[in-house]
Design a protein that fits this description.
The complex is a heterodimer of chains A (about 270) and B (about 325). Chain A is mainly α and about 270 residues long. Helix content of chain A is about 75%, strand content about 0%. Chain A has 11 helices and no strands. Chain A starts with 9 loop residues before the first helix and ends in an 11-residue tail after the last helix. The chains are: A mainly alpha (about 270), B mainly alpha (about 325).
C-alpha cells in the first residue's frame, strides 16, 4: 500500500478503465443475447427480449448430459489434483533437495506449453498403448494440468506457515498424523479450497486437451465448440454460455476471498 | 516426589507413532514418499506422452496406403520446410508477435494505474476485474466476439449508428488485415487473441510494478526529473521483466491455439490448426507430431531468453 498516491492523468485513467471495460463488455453482450427473441442471426440491437430460451435449454437432453459429464470430470480431476498438488507442495516447500528446480518445472510444464501439445501427446500415448477413450482418459488429461493450480496455492501457504509450529507440536508429543490433522491442515485449508476451486473452474472449462482425449464423449465445452462450428439452435448456445459464466465466476470469486489476505496463518510473524 | 512410584510405562507404540519416529530419523524417506505420487503421475503420464509424441515425428506416412511407416526417418521433418508449411509457421509467429506487442500496450496502463494510483478498494476491483476473465470460460469469451464481430453484430451497428460505416468498410478493404467481414479477417482473429490473452499480460506487469521501490521514484522526482523522464528511466526498466513474463503466456498461447482462428478468421491455417488437421482428418500423425514440436522449440528458445531478462522472478 502506498500512502502517497498521486492523482493519475486523464489519459492514463481513461486507458486503464477503458482496458478494464474491454475485458468485461463482451461478457455483458453474451448475457444480453441470451434474452433476445432473434433466432436466426446476431442482430443488434435485439428486436425483443424473452426468457423462453432458458426453458428450452433446460429441456434439452444433450445439454443436461454434457453439464453432468463436465461436473463429474471436474470433481474427480480436482480431487486427484488436490492430493498430488498438496504432496508436491509439501515436498518442495519444506526442504531443499537435488532436482528441486526440475520438479517445479515439471509441474508447470503442462500449462506452460500450449494445450494442443498436451492434448496430442496424450492422444498419441493412448493410441500407442491402445487405451480406449473413456471418462478416465479425460480425467487423466485434466488432472495433469490442474495439479499446478493446487500446487501454486499450497506452496505459497506452506512457505508462510512457520516450521516452528510443527516442531512445537511434535515437542508436545503429537505424532506426525496428529500434527498434520490439527496444525498443518487448518493452516493450509483455505489455500487448498482456493486451489481446488480454481482447478474445478479450469477443468469445467477445458476444451483443447479434452478435444484430444474425449473420444465420443461430450463435455460442456466440447458441446459449445461443436455449436460454434456448426450452430443448430443459437439461442440455446447463448443460454448455455450464460450458465457457464455463472458456474465459473462463483468458484473464482470464492477462491479470491479465501486467499485475499493470505488467509489467517498462525505463527506468521516468526 | 515420591521415590517409590513405579516408573511410567512407555505409551503403547501405535503404528503412526513408529512411522513418525522413522520420518524424523530419516527426513529423506518422507520426502520420497511425498514426491513419488505426483512425480510418477507427471513423469509417466505427461513426460511419457511427450516422448511418445516426439518419437512419432520420426515415423512417416505412406502416401499411397495411408499407413504409418515406423522406420525412423527425417523425411517428415523435411516436409515441414515445404513452402505451404513454412507459411503456416511464419503466419502464426507474426500473429503471436503482434498480439504480444498489442497486449503489452493495452495492459501497461491498466497495471500502472492499479499499482500506483488506485486506493485499496479500486485496486481490489482491478485485481478481480482482471482475474475473473483470466479464469473464466475461454470458449464463452471467444463466442462473445463472434456476436460482436458478426456482420449484423454490435460493432457494425455502432459504426453505422455513428455515421462511420465508411470507416469500417475502409478498414475491411485494406489489404492483408481486411476481409469480407470483421469475423472473417486477420483483424478479427487478432482482436479475439488480444482480448482472450490480455489478462495474462496485466497481472505480471502489475506484480513487477508493485515491486518498484517508492524511494526510487521519490529520489528521481527530488533530483528534478519530470514524471515522463522518471517513467522512462526508472519505472519502465524495472517493469520490463514483468512485460517479458506476460509475453511468455501471450506468445505461447497464440502459438498453440487452434480454436480462435477456426471460429473467427479467414481460411488460412495456423500452427495449432495444422496439428489438429493432420492428426485428425488427414490421419498424418507423424507430420502432426513434427508440427507440434515447432511451438515447443520456439518456446524453449523464448524461455531461455526470458530467463536471461529476469522474467522468471516476475512470474
Amino acid at each position: 500500500m502506498r500512502s502517497d498516491r498521486r492523482p493519475a492523468g486523464i489519459g492514463l485513467t481513461l486507458a486503464a478503465f477503458g482496458g478494464l471495460a474491454f475485458l468485461h463488455l463482451p461478457l455483458a453482450v453474451v448475457v444480453l443475447y441470451a434474452f433476445t427473441t432473434d433466432e436466426k442471426s446476431y442482430t443488434f440491437p435485439p428486436p425483443g427480449l424473452t426468457l423462453k430460451w432458458f426453458a428450452v435449454a433446460l429441456e434439452r437432453e444433450d445439454v443436461r448430459a454434457a453439464i453432468a459429464l463436465s461436473f463429474e470430470v471436474a470433481a474427480i480431476s480436482t480431487l486427484v489434483a488436490l492430493i498430488l498438488g498438496t504432496l508436491a507442495a509439501a515436498a518442495v516447500s519444506r526442504s531443499r533437495f537435488f532436482g528441486r528446480e526440475s520438479v517445479s518445472l515439471l509441474l508447470i510444464l503442462p500449462i506452460a506449453l500450449p494445450g494442443i501439445i498436451t492434448g496430442i501427446a496424450l492422444r498419441s500415448a493412448f493410441n500407442i498403448l491402445e487405451i480406449p477413450w473413456s471418462f478416465w482418459t479425460i480425467v487423466l488429461g485434466h488432472a495433469t494440468f490442474c495439479i499446478v493450480v493446487v500446487y501454486n496455492n499450497a506452496v505459497a501457504r506452506f512457505r508462510r506457515t512457520s516450521a516452528s509450529l510443527i516442531e512445537a507440536s511434535m515437542d508436545l508429543g503429537a505424532d506426525g498424523f496428529q500434527t498434520f490433522r490439527w496444525v498443518v491442515l487448518p493452516n493450509i485449508a483455505t489455500a487448498l479450497l482456493a486451489g481446488g476451486m480454481l482447478a474445478f473452474a479450469l477443468s469445467f472449462d477445458e476444451v483443447i486437451v479434452t478435444t484430444f482425449t474425449a473420444g465420443q464423449q461430450t463435455t460442456l465445452p466440447i458441446w459449445m465448440l461443436s455449436e460454434l462450428v456448426r450452430p443448430r439452435q443459437r439461442p440455446v448456445t447463448n443460454v448455455v454460455a450464460v450458465f457457464v459464466i455463472v458456474v465459473t465466476f462463483l468458484p473464482i470469486l470464492l477462491a479470491y476471498y479465501w486467499t485475499r489476505d493470505g488467509g489467517t496463518v498462525a505463527g506468521q510473524g516468526k | 516426589m515420591s521415590a517409590w512410584s513405579a516408573p511410567l510405562a512407555p505409551p503403547p507404540e501405535s503404528w503412526h507413532r513408529r512411522l513418525t519416529d522413522l520420518f524424523v530419523a530419516h527426513p529423506a524417506l518422507l520426502l520420497l514418499l511425498l514426491l513419488t505420487p505426483p512425480m510418477l503421475w507427471l513423469g509417466v503420464v505427461y513426460l511419457g506422452s511427450l516422448f511418445a509424441l516426439l518419437a512419432q515425428s520420426f515415423f512417416s506416412l505412406d502416401d499411397f496406403s495411408g499407413v504409418i511407416d515406423r522406420t525412423p526417418t527425417l523425411a517428415t521433418w523435411a516436409s515441414l520446410l515445404a513452402p505451404a508449411n513454412l507459411d503456416i509457421v511464419l503466419r502464426t509467429m507474426l500473429m503471436a508477435t503482434a498480439v504480444t506487442i498489442a497486449a503489452a500496450l493495452v495492459a501497461f496502463p491498466i497495471a500502472h494505474y492499479a499499482a500506483f494510483h488506485a486506493g485499496p478498494r479500486v485496486k481490489a476491483m482491478f485485481y478481480v476485474g482482471v482475474m475473473l476473465p483470466l479464469w473464466s470460460s475461454y470458449l464463452v469469451r471467444v463466442y462473445s466476439w463472434k456476436l460482436i464481430l458478426a456482420k449484423e453484430g454490435i460493432l457494425g451497428w455502432l459504426f453505422h449508428a455513428a455515421g462511420l460505416g465508411f470507416v469500417l468498410d475502409g478498414v475491411l478493404d485494406l489489404p492483408v488485415i481486411g476481409g469480407p467481414s470483421l469475423s472473417a479477417s486477420y483483424l478479427g482473429t487478432f482482436l479475439v487473441f488480444l482480448y482472450v490473452w490480455l489478462p495474462f499480460m496485466v497481472l505480471p506487469i502489475q506484480a513487477a510494478l508493485e515491486r518498484v521501490p517508492p524511494s526510487l521514484i521519490e529520489a528521481s522526482a527530488d533530483l528534478g526529473a519530470p514524471p515522463r523522464y522518471t517513467f522512462r528511466t526508472v519505472i519502465l526498466p524495472l517493469a520490463l521483466p514483468g512485460v517479458v513474463a506476460g509475453s511468455i503466456f501471450t506468445f505461447s498461447l497464440t502459438l498453440g491455439d487452434f480454436i480462435i482462428p477456426q471460429i473467427v478468421g479467414g481460411s488460412q491455417l495456423y500452427l495449432g490448426q495444422a496439428v489438429y488437421m493432420h492428426q485428425g482428418t488427414a490421419g498424418n500423425i507423424p507430420l502432426a507430431a513434427a508440427f507440434s514440436v515447432v511451438p515447443v522449440a520456439i518456446m524453449a528458445v523464448y524461455l531461455a531468453l526470458a530467463k536471461r531478462l529476469g522474467a522468471f522472478d516476475a512470474l
